[in-house]
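Researcher: Here's the sequence for the chain we discussed earlier.
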Amino acid sequence: MDVSKTIIYRQIGAKVAYYRTLRGMTQEQLAGKINVSKSTLGRIERGKYNKNVSVSTLLDIADGLRIDMVLLVTFSEQEKKIWWDLERENSIDLKDS
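Model: Thanks. This is the structure I predict for it:
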């Protein structure tokens, strides 16, 4: 998987954790609210959920957090620049080895 996809999954997970914390919810509370296990939610928050989080799951998470799903999948230009820089660094490292 390329660097930018990995970073996107991590960013989505970080946003889930951020909004969950902002709502004063534990992983266990949110997981129960959206009918997934705590470990599944933990993997999503770490960007490690099989490198694939469905739209349906994101909708459930957003509903459980009482936010618009777009908040989880919209990224600033600054965030995107970081991804591009990391991807470029990664491709340079791969060529050098």
